[in-house]
Design a protein that fits this description.
The chain has 74 residues and is mainly alpha-helical. 89% of the residues lie in helices and 0% in strands. The longest helix has 39 residues. The two termini are 25 Å apart.
């Protein structure tokens, strides 16, 4: 997987998943009284996932130049 694909998956997959997930949830549940609390919980869950993915991505990107420089030195 190249860096562009990883970038697209990282930044666009989670918001698209959020929108489609909420749409499917609404189609399955409808106007149930608990729909709003379930939708908020789902959104918070995906927001936490998004933050974790961003932090892992940044950590990996910091290690990549270091590994490349070590490979060229060795």
């Amino acid at each position: 997987m190249n860096d562009r694909t990883l970038f697209l998956l990282l930044y666009f997959a989670t918001p698209v998943t959020l929108v489609f997930g909420l749409l499917v949830m609404y189609l399955l549940i409808g106007d149930h009284p608990w729909f709003m609390s379930m939708a908020v919980g789902y959104t918070v869950l995906l927001a936490v996932l998004y933050v974790v993915k961003l932090s892992v991505f940044k950590k990996l990107m910091r290690k990549k130049p270091k590994a490349e420089s070590e490979a060229s030195d060795g």
